[in-house]
## 1
Amino acid sequence: LPLPSSAGAPAEPLDIEELYRQHAPTVARWAARLGGPSVDVQDVVQEVFLVARRRLRRFDGAAKVTTWLFRATQRIVLAARRKARLRRWLSRTPADLAPAAPRPRPTPLETVERDELAGVVYRLLDQLPERQRQVLILFEMEGLGAAEIAALTGARPATVRVQLHRARCKFAELYEAWEQQ
Amino acid sequence: MRRIRTEPERWSARGAGNALEDSLGAALRAAADATVPGPADLPPLAPEPLVVPRRLGLPALAGVLVLVAGGAVGAAQLVRAARAAREPLGTVDVPRGSTVSISGRHGRRIRLDGPITLSGDVERVVLAGEGEARVEAGERPLEIRGPSGSAIDLPAGATWSGTVAAAPAAQAAPPAHAGAAVGPPPAPSLAPPAPAPPPAPALAAAAPVVVARAAAPRPERAHHADRSPPAPLAAPPALEPGPPPSPAPASGADGAEAALVASAFRALRAGHDPAGALALLDQHAARFPLGVLAVEAGMARVEALLAEGERGRALATLEALPEGRGASPPARALLRGELRASLGGCRAALADFDAALASAVAGAGGSAEVSARARAGRAACRARLGISDETLAPLPTREGVEGAPR
């Protein structure tokens, strides 16, 4: 099916391998940032493109490919985080199983400290409402503007700005409280 | 409420200033740096999985209810049929010297496996159930003769039990082959009654004694080729079930066993004849039930059954095989998971995929393909078990999209 590419390039037939080649790195970055250390990025990428493969024929080009992929990533990450929360609850060791190191790797001290701090950030982010959490991550960590976030999430830019404002206030409160502990 | 018209400065990008905001910026930068995906986070695009997740909804629920109701009705019918099968179907007097061919219940013709010629004084055939028959001798000895010339002499008052093949009304089914499917068909199920002890005199007339009983026929393999094979696996497992044994091994029983298994592998892989391979494997199972190559033969059977499209039997065979030999642990776990997933057992399949991944990571013979397929299978099963609805992203309208994302 011909459809416009995300960059507005001339219409091209949509092919799953081409789609994967072009967008897998972006999807992996979204998955890593939105999901945090508790999410298996490889699994999310596989699931996103599994969905894409299944739904490819139904894609009518009404939306941008990136928007479509972001929605799938967002939902899969959300489901993965829910499962991770459930596992933490069942095992009753939140501090151990919550965001620890993102992935096993030989790390120098700085990397360990950075990963620990990242774990704290994601624990605090998890206390925000989902929309606010997502907007804050896309704004601060992905470096997207309100208009870009609105394009990806399907919200109005004004709504995104409000959510961002609330998210920053809440996150600052949480972070300050954590620092004072 | 104050309207927010502009975007704030990013904490993660701002310079030195407020201490709290500096600290927030540092923390967010650390989180961003720690979540940069590496090359290992980009697996190769997995092939199309065996399991295609479906959106569950009311139609599926209705389908499940219909299936459950149908299953209950079917089970009740099976129970009734089992009860009926235990009751004798009837007693028929057979003229002397004739070939027995009797119509049983439900409009089906039942014939003795042979055909069998009865000659003697008094003959009666008692149909004890579909698939079995008892021939009772009268006051004088009775001879039962099979087509190959084998004969059984029954003493007066004794009973012979044998196999009856059921066939559709207008069709005479060929004799069922018991045991191996290769080689000349065995003699019809006439077994000499000699080893049986003589009946007690007081019971001889009232309760006939079973003198001998032929083995129940196995399901026929000869019809495999006639069946239209079911849809093949979407991605036929490229698993190596261990090297086929050498066709010329040591000697004696081991050598014969290895030659038989090697012939089966040759028929399967070089001859592309899974039915022939299955026949050879049946022969192997009959001759070497405790053979040293039982596992290899089992893996060959799994491969042949998959080629035949018999996924259920392939899975059952695979599950019955002992661990430790044959295919590598990740490959075997992957195959088991894919088969279970394709047969609807996604929950059990998830454990297999996890085991395949764990073994592959541990270096127990796993390959990149095994890992990729295990991940794809796991993703498909997870989707089928619950994420499916959520992963189906609604397609946003063009109007809802403003600006291009990065």
## 2
Amino acid sequence: MDLRQHLRTDPITELRLRPLVTAYPHTPMGQAVAAMRKHGVRSVIVLEQSTQKPIGIFNERMLIKALAAVDHAMSKPIGEFIIRSVPLIRRDEPIAHLVRLMKRQQVRSACVTDENGKPVALAGVRGLLEYLSDFFPYEIKVQPFESQFGLSEREGA
Amino acid sequence: MTRKPRREPEPGEFQDPLKNYTAEPHSDDLERSLAEDPLRVIEYKPVVTIGPEETVRGAIRRMAELGIASLVVCEAGRPIGILTEYDVLVRVAERFDAIADQPVRSVMTPDPVVVFDSEPPARVVNLMANGPFRHLPVVDVDGKLVGVIGPRRVTAYLQRFFRDLDAA
């Protein structure tokens, strides 16, 4: 089975998913940023408090816009800065659907839901790259991690 | 055309152990591209740079205005640091009011890992998948900055190979 077939059949849960961090529209931005740092994630899913349904997403890009636009941004409610459209994907959908979603909506991550639509995790570019990296280990995992190009000093002899 | 018969080496003559080696053909377009294509198949331009003495406030404003996720901090055309969205999240956001007028040098990630424009795309994918990197300055053989690669550009590169998945 080649990569494309795997992408069409492997469910989203085959990717390493990131923990879901949530907030409400009235949550101060500073509190949401602290949660993002603590859990090592780049996005927060904002839920409607009464229904617990996702109504928006707050990410690093919105943080930068907020810092540039208003004074004392960290004390403002997060709801003023969210994108009111959450890319959603069910956890039993194939990975190909995530690739398509990222392309169509120009997003880097999506909120993964269970079969009832309840948000459970985040899926993003990094998880996809890890998946590819496991698929092509002889091309990808052999690459060096440092910046050195060739030898720093001339070889002896 | 007939094949020339192979000459047997003389006793003591060097024999190349790889002379009959043929590399296995790649099974997939993406596999071939990851290993063999030049880095320019991932769009790594334009790149926005900033000087190390510019203020944190100025850097944040520029990122917001241009809608970009990273600024490469350069001196004499060489990258000495990088300021990314993640740096802003972990080092700037919570104390922005206190450090807004400090130089960007104080909050950037210094000496970033760079990729050379002569390297294959697989190096970028490895660094982003298996290392703590999401934005990588691209330099030429002299170490001069020529571009930057982030997750969005890598995604755009990969999506070229997955066009047929639209029907999935």
